[in-house]
Fold each of these.
Amino acid sequence: MAFGFPASFSQLTPLNNLPSSAFILTTISICKKLNWTLIGVAENEIFAVSKNKKHTWNETISITIEEEGTALITSSSNGNQFYDCGRNKKNTESFLELYFEELNDASNLNLDSDAFPEHIKTEQRNLSSEKETEQNITSFYSFFSIFIPTKDYLITPILIYLNILYFLVMLYLGVHFFSPEVQEIIDWGGNHGPLTTENQWWRLLSACFVPFNFLHLVVSCFALAYVGLLLESYLKKWIFLVTYLLCGIIGNLSSLYWDKDVVSAGASGAIFGMYGILLIALISKTLKKKINILSYFQLYF
């Protein structure tokens, strides 16, 4: 499972004395068998994207011929994922599995220096329309992906929908679009010390879904979407949900501690808490790398 910005996985493989031209042609054939869309073809490298699926993001795969008779296969997640649930490694393994199956057939290819460039040009002409279509699909998908629930990104869109729905109901029942009255925020479940501490503890949770105004809602939704894209697949769905709600409750408790007479509302406390979790995850990864490096030196020195 890859972890990073964006998530990616790379692996070197030997060409096994296979001519580079035969390797590139074999790579093109394998990409088509895997239903990957070719977006770049050259004499020493291939770029493709995995098929867009309804419930997952896709990945960009590059296969580049390196020095000393090796090729580097790299699969990188598209979008803002930093945890790929093993998809990048699976892409690499799928490619290598077919590559070794076809290695004997590819070894029989015998292309002269003139025929190979012409074959590459033909492939480049064939992929131009596919590339344009794929880019349009990817651009559309990337823009709207923060609102589309997927297998690895389910809770975040639902939370966004709940925030939007709550605000729409508030508007429908007369709350002002840009500047609601403070009393209206309280009436709709805002966190207010004198009420919350008088057995209305449910306000610690309800306040997480009460935006102060339209701009507050928009900023909160985009901030939530971004941290959700990064964290939800890493923490898993239900852990992400519980952590989000706990962060919101703790944030509202903190507001009571600092000034119980102030009215607090919105998803900011929960969102800031999730960014704190993200920071911990990033620091932990850095520390893990340092530990691995130290272990390496201890082993060999």
Amino acid sequence: MYVFIYIILQHQRPVSQTQEVVMASNIMFGNSEESQDYRCHYLRKNSSLPEVTAFTTFPVNSIFFIDSSCSGLTLRKACSVESAARANPERQIVVLSTSPMNPENAIIKKLLSLNNTSVLRIHLENYAEETPLDGKFRKKPLSFEDLNIDLADILKFLTLYKYSGIYLSMDVIVARKFEGLLSNWVVNESPATMSSDMFCFSGNFNGRAMAHVALK
């Protein structure tokens, strides 16, 4: 992963020491100025990524990442994806983006060079069709007040409702294979709470029941 960061940075324009400090801070701590304006997710231009359609399917043991920002993939996010891909070469790694991305971007090209990784575009107005959230995203432009919850929190549960599999936040670094685990699992954030940054809903009865409850 450190090699990945080094390679990408070598292709950037020279920056000052101050800019380097800011870049390092953003990579390590995820500092950003994300807006709650969701209009970028409805843009159809300037994106040549393959698109998720009603006919798209994924292997049942896929690992999903979701980028619901308007700023695209960062090095920090890419490290999370790469770690999952290298630790689980037998699984399909799927990165879903809600906003336009250029596959010629250096970060995306590096991820696509991994044999088991794909980066795809989802369109909000269609993504929830034939699910309990059908129609939720049809209003344009969507706002935080419309959802009353962060967009990423909706999409992570919606994605596993649609396809089953494992969801990972882009803050997670994977150090070993996902093997020897139950069909459905979550992780503890504290003794009293569970985390939604990392969980698995399978296609079996219990997994479907958990996915239904999560969307309510």
Amino acid sequence: MSKFTALYKNDTKLLKSQECRRQQRILECKKKRNAAVMILRDIHIEDKEEKPGKRSNCKIMLAEELNEIPEDLMENWYILPVPKGYRNLLISNNNKTRAYSKYGKKIDNFDSILPGGSSLTITQKHTAIDTIYCKEINKYYVLDAICWNSLELCNNSTDMRFFWLKSKMEEMYNQFPNLPENDRRFIYLQRYRMSNWDCSEWKKNNSDTFLLNNMDGYLIYHEKTIYEPGLTPLVGWIPYEDIDILLNSV
């Protein structure tokens, strides 16, 4: 029996706590639309070089391991299949792109086609995206957007951020149609409404062989959560081997 199964079936006190915290957090999101900008305060937009190993105060939004199936799972949640890799926050500004670990440690510095990420983009604005870095293929699977081309998105709901991210990444690659494959480092991670999710169909129709062969698990996002730093019950983590337990329990 997996850890997920044990938690789902046995710990009633914990289950109530997580569901109550979800409902409370949804109400807080509606009242505190301006609170999430604290993430952006620590984005360095000054023109200076930073050495690898430097720590940033920027924090990413982290999922809680799913202990209880949300009551509104089929109505109000998205699901994202995610590969094994390293969680990275990417910040592009002043013609440079910087990668930070989920603990805020700077781990890389490179040119990219993200707005503000290199001389190719010709902009003084900045972008911050939440990603999973896969070292084997040297690519970043993009989970979420905090800001894009200096437009702050963290106060917007999940469905708005996901829509904006998809459309802007398509525009970005359309702007550079002849970009070499080695420079196409950002992959929009497909996401689905839980009401439309079919795990077998997804595996059958997915052309991303790396993702299929290197699955780590699934993230689920409530459609109305804002992007805020730290753990939140409005984003859940499901290990790869436990997805059937979830679907069979709905």
Amino acid sequence: MLRMVVSNTCGFNRLSRNDIAQQTIKISLQKNNVKLYTKDGEFDLNNPHDQFMKTVFDAMSQFDNAQRTERSRLGKLNKIRSGSWMGGPPPYGYKIEDKMLVENALESQWIKKIYQWYAKGEPTQFIKSQLDSNGVQPRRAKGLWTLGSLQKILKNTHFLGYYTYTDKKAGETIECSCPAFLDQRLWNAAQDRREKIIERKGQNNRTKRFYLLRDFMYCGHCGTPHGWSH
């Protein structure tokens, strides 16, 4: 009989976190008459008693993992409810102190400028060029700004003092507070412009006729795709 030795720091269930893959391994061991040695003991998977004991150990391990995951999830929710940051890098304009979001003055000044430019009607391409030419570094990609990252900033509610977190398992959405540094009127002006641009794009997409240059023509002022009612 062949022998398969698993590290004494883990049991059989650690061979795979996937139940189907783990069962496939079990079947392969049985077919090849392989005896398994783990921290839980010695198992001959062709022996009914060993099969039963292995099933019990696996079930206990899976239950323990599920309990640990649930405790971690509930702990995270409690921290978020108490005002702690949910984890990961903070949004541009903020930094983390004592597990809480606080304003990053060096970055927040540029957030305000972005909104001011946009509310005045400047295209996002212009805003990008201003940030790049002034050496303002984006948060994640060290280099140049992208139009996508600017669009995310222009709809980020953190700057108004709140954001939402949704627990995927329970489907519960929590509204969290954070320091605000953007004027509500400036936010509203930016959102009004965003909505008009989105509406214009929708009209363009509903065009029934085919225009050869439709996907290649952009407004030189606002940077949005040209619709024939632009």
